[in-house]
């Protein structure tokens, strides 16, 4: 499609000495103007995918296009239209906050005057003007991350890549970064991010590709993915023993149970259309002779989707 | 932020973008050099100063001058002073490139943003060699006067400036040593930097002809084999120091038609290994 900023075709990466591919015949299309998320646990292949798209990982086979340009054939051209925020703080320690932006502009071919103006403008926009002359060592984790985003969009890239952008950030900085990304996207910035935080994918992304073992297991909007579970409520019951017994009892006696799962002392049931779910659960448990320690109901999340697809939790 | 202006497609050719990126990379390095110039001068001068102070001032004062007393000691000064310039050029290559790269490739990964510049990856390494070479030339310029003035009375190096050799051999030596720095910086993991100093940098400096001209090594033999004189031919610093002797003094030195091609050869060898290593470190 003409509006696709990123296209991959049967993209595969096998690292030397590894038997299993890190990315296995991946077909993706990212549309202009959307926030696209690659969600999955460590080792799912999302960082490798982002690495290929940002020209740092050489694919074993298949093809990847960014802004219509082949990343293997013309990496230097692809870099002209990509902005990258890595997981780590990669700010230049030898330069001040302002210089980190200014020299980025010079690297991307902007003249001294343009680069100065854009550096000033971005520090203002990102509320970092006060720190312009400071060493990057003086920045907090959240501010450093903001500066990296400012640096990444300095040259007005067609795609902004973020690799686990909020890993290691405090909750407040994480929310601030989400707001910032939403604002950038609102202004037309295409964003591709990798994350293993389901809330992040849910909150930020227009579409999410759930990945595991180098494959995309599901790809849709967060809402559609959640609807695909068939449940509208997730019931979590903590017991001290007899978890399996309770799971069986719930599946038989509660009505509308789509699936159940026992992990240690926690029984989870995905339920559709449950009225008075809490009292009825207690009744079913008592009838089965199982003591309930704790009980919670929640809406399905992307975590639920992931569990349904893989049989394991995202955080494992 | 109302609407962003976004470059949906590359606006410049790869060549034009690469040229600009190279300029930006070198500008960044020179800005850092300017900001830390005091530090640069100190670390550049301390070793030459100590070498001259100990060998050309303290030793003659306490009656153990190298080369005997009087003319012998002055003769040693003439040998040492260009050697000190040569060793400074080499240390510049190690410090401005190998050590900087160890940090930038190490836990901070600061090199990331420069590696994402819209140019081929090898050009990022070339820019390092270029700015490292500039630092080498500056180092040579500030070390030479120190080396020529720090000495005891009478222990004076006989300096004779051969400008053609100076303006060709000094930059060539700087490029070769900066390229050596690139090889070292991309071959050793940051945690093995101590190993690099112990097993590479020290042998190169002590067996690099700083304290003696190569021609004087002939008496070191096993049977009739001049083993040391032959072995040190593998050491690139020998050619740098011999070149400095040719450029700054009338002391005996290796033939220029050996020095030039071998230095060019070493520069090309180190550069090709260094660029290959650099690419390997960056890509996976």
Quickly list its features.
heterodimer; A: 316 residues; alpha/beta; Rossmann fold; Alpha-Beta Plaits; 2 domains; six-stranded mixed beta sheet; four-stranded antiparallel beta sheet; 11 helices; 14 strands; 36% helix; B: 284 residues; mainly alpha; 10 helices; 0% strand
The chain pair with the largest interface is: A-B, 51 and 45 residues
What percentage of residues of chain A falls in helices of 4 or more residues? 25-40%
What class do helices, strands and sheet pairing of chain A give? alpha/beta
Strand content of chain A: 25-35%
Walk across the major sheet of chain A and give the strand order.
Answer: 6-7-8-3-9-10
- Please bin the fraction of helical residues of chain B: over 70%
Number of domains of chain B: 1
CATH first level of the largest domain in chain A: which class? Alpha Beta
Q: In words, what does this structure look like?
A:
The complex is a heterodimer of chains A (316) and B (284). By secondary structure, chain A is of the alpha/beta class. Chain A folds into 2 domains: 4-91 and 139-226, 3-Layer(aba) Sandwich (Rossmann fold); 230-299, 2-Layer Sandwich (Alpha-Beta Plaits). Chain A has helices at residues 46-53, 75-80, 97-107, 112-125, 141-153, 171-186, 198-204, 222-227, 243-253, 277-288, 302-310, and strands at residues 4-13, 23-31, 35-39, 61-66, 69-70, 82-85, 159-163, 190-195, 207-212, 215-220, 233-239, 257-263, 266-271, 292-298. A 6-stranded mixed β-sheet of chain A has the order 6-7-8-3-9-10, sandwiched between helices. In chain A, α3 (97-107) packs across α4 (112-125) and α5 runs parallel beside α6 (171-186). The model of chain A has no long low-confidence stretch (mean pLDDT 89). By secondary structure, chain B is mainly alpha-helical. Helix content of chain B is 70%, strand content 0%. Chain B contains 10 helices and no strands. In chain B, α5 (121-149) crosses α10 (256-282) and α6 (163-187) packs antiparallel against α9 (236-248). The longest helix of chain B is centred in the N-terminal third of the chain and has 35 residues, at 71-105. Classes of the chains: A alpha/beta (316), B mainly alpha (284). At the A-B interface, α2, α3 and α6 of A face α1 and α4 of B.
């Amino acid at each position: 499609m003409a509006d696709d900023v990123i296209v991959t075709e049967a993209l595969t990466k096998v690292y030397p000495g590894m038997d299993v591919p890190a990315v296995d015949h991946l077909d993706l299309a990212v549309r202009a103007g959307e926030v696209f998320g690659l969600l999955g646990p460590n080792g799912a292949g999302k960082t490798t995918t982002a690495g290929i798209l940002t020209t740092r990982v050489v694919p074993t086979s298949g093809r990847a296009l960014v802004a219509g340009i082949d990343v293997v054939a013309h990496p230097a051209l692809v870099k002209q239209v990509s902005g990258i925020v890595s997981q780590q703080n990669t700010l230049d320690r030898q330069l001040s906050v302002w210089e980190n932006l200014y020299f980025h502009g010079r690297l991307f071919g902007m003249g001294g005057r343009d680069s100065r103006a854009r550096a000033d403008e971005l520090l203002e926009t990102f509320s970092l003007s006060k720190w312009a002359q400071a060493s990057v060592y003086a920045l907090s984790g959240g501010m450093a991350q903001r500066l990296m985003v400012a640096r990444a969009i300095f040259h007005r890239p067609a795609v902004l890549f973020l690799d686990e952008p909020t890993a290691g950030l405090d909750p407040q900085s994480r929310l601030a970064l989400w707001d910032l990304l939403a604002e950038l996207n609102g202004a037309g910035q295409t964003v591709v991010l990798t994350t293993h935080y389901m809330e992040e994918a849910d909150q930020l992304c227009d579409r999410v590709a759930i990945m595991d073992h180098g494959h995309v297991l599901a790809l849709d909007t967060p809402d559609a993915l959640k609807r695909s579970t068939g449940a509208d409520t997730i019931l979590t019951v903590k017991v001290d023993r007899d978890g399996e017994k309770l799971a069986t009892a719930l599946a038989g006696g509660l009505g509308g149970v789509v699936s159940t799962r026992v992990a240690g002392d926690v029984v989870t049931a995905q339920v559709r259309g449950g009225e008075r779910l809490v009292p009825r659960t207690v009744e079913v448990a008592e009838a089965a002779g199982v003591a309930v320690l704790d009980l919670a109901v929640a809406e399905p999340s992307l975590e639920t989707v992931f569990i349904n697809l893989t049989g394991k939790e995202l955080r494992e | 932020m109302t609407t962003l202006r976004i470059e949906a497609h590359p606006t410049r050719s790869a060549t034009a973008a690469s040229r600009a990126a190279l300029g930006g990379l070198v500008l960044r390095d020179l800005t850092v050099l300017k900001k830390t110039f005091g530090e640069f001068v100190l670390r550049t001068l301390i070793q030459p100063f100590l070498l001259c102070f100990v060998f050309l001032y303290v030793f003659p004062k306490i009656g153990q001058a190298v080369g005997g007393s009087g003319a012998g000691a002055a003769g040693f000064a003439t040998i040492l002073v260009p050697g000190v310039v040569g060793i400074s050029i080499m240390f510049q290559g190690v410090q401005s490139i190998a050590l900087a790269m160890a940090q930038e490739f190490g836990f901070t990964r600061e090199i990331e943003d420069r590696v994402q510049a819209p140019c081929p990856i090898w050009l990022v390494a070339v820019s390092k060699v270029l700015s490292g070479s500039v630092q080498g030339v500056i180092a040579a310029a500030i070390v030479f006067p120190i080396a020529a003035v720090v000495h005891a009375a009478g222990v004076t190096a006989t300096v004779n400036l051969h400008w053609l050799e100076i303006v060709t051999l000094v930059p060539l030596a700087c490029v070769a040593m900066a390229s050596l720095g690139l090889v070292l910086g991309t071959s050793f993991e940051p945690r093995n930097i101590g190993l690099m100093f112990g097993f590479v940098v020290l042998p190169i400096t002590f067996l690099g002809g700083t304290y003696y001209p190569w021609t004087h090594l002939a008496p070191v033999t096993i049977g009739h084999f001049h083993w040391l004189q032959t072995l040190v031919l593998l050491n690139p610093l020998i050619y740098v120091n011999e070149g400095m002797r040719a450029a700054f003094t009338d002391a005996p030195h290796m033939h220029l038609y050996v020095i030039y091609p071998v230095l060019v050869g070493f520069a090309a060898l180190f550069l090709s290994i260094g660029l290959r290593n650099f690419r390997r470190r960056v890509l996976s």
